[in-house]
Amino acid sequence: MPNKFENYQNIAAAIPEKAWSWNMYGAGIENIGRNGQPEKFLVPMPNDDQMLVRVDAVGMCFSDVKLIKQGGAHPKLYNRDLEKNPTRLGHEAALTVIKVGKNLAGQFHPGQRLAIQPDIYQNQVNTAYGYTIPGGLTQFHLIGSEILKGDDGSYILPFEGELSYAETALTEPWACVEAAYTQRRRLTPKEGGLMWILGQPGDENTYTFSKGLSAPQTIVLTDVPDSLKKRILEEKSRGAKIIEANQLTPQDYPQFKAKFSEDRGFDDIIVLEPLSAQLVTEAAKLIAFRGTFNLIAKKPLDGSPLIDAGRIHYHYTTYIGSSGPDISASYGEERNRCELRKSGVAVFVGAGGPMGQMHVQRAIELENGPAVIIATEVNDARLAVLANRCSPLAVNRGKQLITFNPSTANESTIDFVKRVTKEQGADDVVVCVPIASIMEESAKLLAADGMLVFFAGASVGTFIPVDLSGIYMHNMQLSGTSGSKLKDQSLVIQKTLAKQLSPNLSVAAIGGMQAARDGAQAMMNGLYAGKVVIFPQLSDLPLTGLDDLHQRYPEIAEKLGAGNSWTAEAEKALIEKFWVGDQL
Description:
Number of helices: 18
Number of strands: 26
Helix content: 25-40%
Oligomer: single chain
């Protein structure tokens, strides 16, 4: 006779007439649900172009805090009146197909397991699941063209194989981590774009441009040496527009940007032999969305330019460079790495939060990844949780994990990293804290040719000083990342199925449907160092930290892994204990 877990997997229970849902009616945690409770709604039946899915697990994400605080004013809700047209949190979701409309029958089938990529675009407009499209804090919902027919096709990821429900939900945040090491920068001049080449009066260097110069439609020249100008003027024969605007000062740049780019900025900016950090600071403000800033020089700048860390994270502004004389040598994958250095030293700043822990875990599990992983965190309790969960994994993988709390240590993070690396600096520094002063300090942890990744999203307009001389003199890397794409999540699913990645290690607390709002509050308060996962099909399961399972539910706790880590076996025991079928 099948047990309850087998019946659950085989969708043996009847579809209930009504099911629970946590709708969001406005800003503030008090507007999630009604009077602090979920509501029951009729379970809708799909039309020919829809399917009904069961929500099996939902990860609570800190990015929801902005949505909770702003309500309908959130950028992804486009000033929506949530009282009249509510949404739901829950963009990290594991789904099972329950019923399929006839026009989707060849693509999906009942019992099929699904993950979802929430960053959905329709006609180039972001209509994200869990924001514009109500998310997974419900027991059942319909999926139709709003998700299946986006700009990238379907944003559903069906899979075959043994993934737990928590693992499936957490493939989305893990995809964001994976995306941090997937090339997101544009590394060639933009086809049909607007290029600005900024030279320096009196520069007698001879420059070449072996490839990529044919890409821009318009090239603006400022004080460019005659030898390079002659090469560029040859592009007129293919219809490129060449404009000269000489003798500009940094004070002229805002008006210059407005005149030549309609205030949009330049897709590609090339600066020849800059010496002034102030000039670079002002010129970099003219980079367009997803634009590149290419520094060609042999001598260091006279200081550290101010760069917009928020734009690197959200707008993918790209800083590249080389010593020349070929300007195109700065571009391309070969010079611009995005993965952690093999056998190197990687530092993760603010590593104690859920996403920071994921970065640390990935570095440990990464084949051909860093040999030494330094995790910094100002909260001792979070640091202890990270060490407890990741140290056994590091030992098993032959890696060295070092934890460091700068708020209680007798030395600064900079001095500590220099000591560990014998004054060389770190090969990679990943910043998981959106605080300008910490970002500034993190840049100083780098080796000459190190990589700095802004993972946390400081707001656009957050300027920090960074010595950009390292980019063209030593091949220093500077990048940022926000969100993920289908291919990132697909890669995480593949790695998890291949046992190369363990998303379950990120779980810190679990709860049933009625505990969802408590889970959101706990996530906002930073109550748990890892992820809170809600199981919407389970009732009478209060929000419970994994470390508390031994006292509350020993029959589930005995299935936990090393360091009280979540496992597929623990999830089976959880469903056996708390699932009551269609009697919810």
